[in-house]
Write a structure and sequence with these properties.
Blueprint (H helix, E strand, L loop, with lengths): L8 H5 L1 E5 L2 E5 L5 H8 L8 H21 L3
Antiparallel strand pairs: 1-2
């Protein structure tokens, strides 16, 4: 099984793509399917703590900046 942390190839390859149904997240490295089979799609998710950090440090400031242009 490929190591998920030592070189970071898998993590570096994870990308998101907007779709009509939301965001599709995945990896295109050759061993991604092996990792997905072993750990499931949960490997592409964010923990509750990471979601909060993302909202407060990335999403909210950008959304606020965007909305302020219109009000």
């Amino acid at each position: 099984t490929p190591d998920l942390y030592i070189r970071g190839d898998f993590h570096k390859s994870i990308k998101g793509k907007a779709t009509e149904k939301g965001v599709m997240i995945g990896s295109n490295v050759s061993f991604a399917r092996d990792i997905e089979r072993k750990y499931g799609n949960i490997i592409y998710g964010l923990s509750p703590e990471a979601k909060k950090r993302f909202v407060s440090t990335q999403l909210y400031p950008r959304l606020k900046s965007y909305v302020s242009k219109f009000i």
